[in-house]
Amino acid sequence: MRILLIRLRLIGDVVFTTPAIRALRRRFPTAHLSYLVETTAAPVVALNPHLSEVIAIPHRRGWQRVVDDVSLAKRLRASRFDIAIDFHGGPRSSWLAWMARAPVRVGYDVPGRSWMYTRLVHRPVELRPRHSVENQWDLLAEVDAAFARPADPSLDRMEMPVDPEARDRVCQRLAEWGVPDDGRIIVLHVSAGNPFRRWPEASFASLASGLVTAAPNRWVLVTGGPSDREATARVIAETRRLADTASNRVVDAETLSLVELRAVVDRAALYVGGDSGPLHVAGTSDVPVVGLYGPTLPERSAPWRPRSIPTVSVDVGILPCRPCHQRVCEPGDFRCLVGISAERVREAAERLLDTGR
Questions:
Q1: Helix, strand or coil for residue 311?
Q2: Distance between CA atoms of 116 and 46, rounded to whole angstroms?
Q3: Helix (H, G, I), strand (E, B) or coil at 154
């Protein structure tokens, strides 16, 4: 049996498909499992032990995408897949699923695209407090009755194996940064995919400086995405100013790649960050995580891993405008993020650092 899995675009969304990958391999141990992903998120599944093949495609626009997709469609059709599962449901992914011409094509009942699938799963328009992993599990239930049981994070958790070469590079960088072997590392990711998920810079600086000055063996590694380099630099500068004599233990780790971030998290005592791809990459580890949720719900996108692994989700609570589709902030003041105080996040972080719970 040959099965094609499709999930394009964002890193976190690809991480959320890894429980399904594991479950499919357990159900079909001899199947050829191919995963179609865009290059930005490809590192998430590149070393996944349950996949037979990873097909990485660029995210380009205009005529270049047309050329890419026509060539890819021919390749997919020639592969003669028996089943295609579209975890995305976007225009590009649904078209590619259709062009693969698999006899069984499973996808969501998105208006205008449902005809491209042979089996449909209802996807409500509203943002429900139901985890993304569970939403994707519904697709598996259309493939085989064995998936009628609820998804279980203790059996099928998020996965992203550590690249051994990335681990070696991280060890070298930590030595260059002066981090001792017994140093307690706190990874603080300060950027997000869009402004609707960015916690205020001043809050990050207050949190980081408070954490690093509280104990002499703590080191804060500040990371950020390519689109937020200036903001990351400002957070680092302000944190160092507030940290005073502990400023040398505030490290600019922005240059870490995605696979290096996954490796450094394994060395860390704690990860803190907003609801973005790196948070979910960190969630594939056994390291305690503090996640910050503004317009999104932790019930929908908290790390999907065994409950025995310490995880704390911090949000502002109930607001009439929350959750939202992150297109326009109706109140105009991003209160779902501004309302999360640095003191509250630090309290959660200290609790995990002290007890692991």
A1: strand
A2: 28
A3: coil
| 9 φ/ψ sector (left φ>0, alpha ψ -120 to 50, else beta) | left
Query: Angle 186-188-190 (CA atoms, 0-180°, nearest 5)?
Result: 175
Residue-by-residue DSSP string for 88-102: S-SHHHHHHHHHTT-
CA-angle at 187, arms to 184 and 188, nearest 5°: 135
In this predicted model, what pLDDT tens digit does every residue of 67-119 receive, in sequence order? 888 999 999 999 999 999 999 999 999 999 999 999 999 999 999 999 999 99
CA distance 134 to 168: 35
Q: Do 266 and 228 contact (CB within 8 A), yes or no? A: no
Reported as a pLDDT band with limits 50, 70 and 90, residue 126 is confident
Whole-angstrom distance, CA of residue 85 vs CA of residue 17? 11
CB 283, CB 305: distance < 8 Å: yes
User: Helices in the chain by DSSP H: which ranges?
Assistant: 11-15, 18-27, 42-45, 62-78, 91-99, 132-141, 164-177, 201-213, 229-243, 258-267, 277-282, 298-301, 335-338, 342-355
Handedness of CA 17, 54, 43, 61 (dihedral sign): negative
Residue 2 token pair:
């040959």
User: What stretch of H or E contains 38?
Assistant: strand 32-38
What structural domains and CATH numbers belong to the chain? Answer: 2-148 (3.40.50.2000), 164-355 (3.40.50.2000)
Taking only the tens place, the pLDDT of each residue in 149-182 is 999 999 999 999 999 999 999 999 999 999 999 9
Nearest alpha-carbon partner for 305 in 180, 174, 155: 155
Tokens of 121: 């799963």
pTM tops 0.85, yes or no: yes
Is the Cβ–Cβ distance between 325 and 283 less than 8 Å? no
| Beta-bridge partner residues of 188 | 222, 272
Q: What is the 8-class DSSP label of residue 247?
A: G
**SS3 of 243, please?**
helix
